[in-house]
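Bumping with the actual sequence this time:
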Amino acid sequence: MIALRTVAVAAILALAPGLASAQASPEPMTVYKGATLIDGTGAPPKPGMSILVVGERIERVWKDGEVAFKLPPQTRVVDVAGQYVLPGLTDSHQHLATPPARIWAEAELKRDLYSGVTSIRDMADDIRNVSDLSRAARIGEIPGPDIYYAALMAGPSFFEDQRVHAASRGAKAGEVGWMQAVGPQTDLALAVAQARGLGASAIKVYANLPGETVAKITAEAHRQGVPIWAHAAVFPATPAQVLAAGVDGVSHVCMLAYQVSDPIPGQYHKRAAVEEGRFGAGVHPEMAKLYARMKADGVVLDATVRIYEMMKARPSKPYCSTELAAKLTREAQAAGVIVSAGTDGASAPEATYPALHEELELLVDKAGFTPMQAIVAATRNGALSVRKDPDFGTIEPGKLANLVFVAKDPSADIRNLRTVVTTVKRGVVYARADYDPKADLAARKSQP
């Protein structure tokens, strides 16, 4: 029994239908009692909140003392007073299988899950491997986030890239359903259907395609109910042409900057660096047009600020600086664009937390996001990036019980997300104390 202070009859009646169904449910019931709720919408934290989970979904969310009702005797009550609860995090840009390395991927997924990440967006790999990882994580065979993955389409000239051959081993890159070369003779209806048949959540439009082809792929994919995740520039398709095609999301914020290049590079592998000298202190007029279009159409920007920071360590000059990436991400967010948190890479094997935490910290430290804006990027906006916002991304009744409990307030300091106590994915509990980073590292090193 949860203590009653002042009870409104209407409140009790409002609870009754759902509670009656919960009482009749054979599924496990758990109440997480007394946490400070950060619900993923950007609303201020709410102290003293409780969450009723039935099976894999959230049944009720309420403030302690505002309502009272009897819970069935089988209900487990977990005291989380002093902790902060957020929606499970989403990394909207990972690669798990280019090339496939099962032991490494399982270790990556395990580190993700025990660090609060309950869903990821895999942006095109060897689907044969990723689909098996997805199944295993979904049914609890291995600990890991739910995986939503893309099939790739690009122009024929792109398939000189060795990565697509590594992800198509045993078959011919460009001629398999998960890595398709698209030319004038391609039957797009069949190509999209092949991607669907492989269980792909979306099609990733990658490179070396003109704007009119990007538009045709997008139109056919949408006709078949398949989202399009695209690079922000597809070369020679400009960012404006990519957005005009009606894509659902774009990756890599600095690729938007090619809109001011004259001319835009014709191919992905033969592109000059972004002309950073064209960007002053204010918002470039061409960029303002892109932001306005993205806001109007609800296009999700998978900014990947982290990848530009990682490029500093490469021997070749990066095509864009972290500073410009951060500036453009800050402008997009201020313009009302939906910005998600994607990494496009992994933390060092010995790191105890995954790359998503690095991305969130860069959004705050470099791009000027508030900690709460960064949290929204990894929760609500992460769900939007995979079109699963009806199922997760915020904490509210009816949604999946994807939750992360932390010891310190992340809305005060984004680094407090590194104090995970417990992750709950689809109602299943994963205690951080059960995670052994040293064993995880040893597993990675065992990969041939």
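The tokens above came from a reply further down the thread. The chain has 15 helices and 18 strands.
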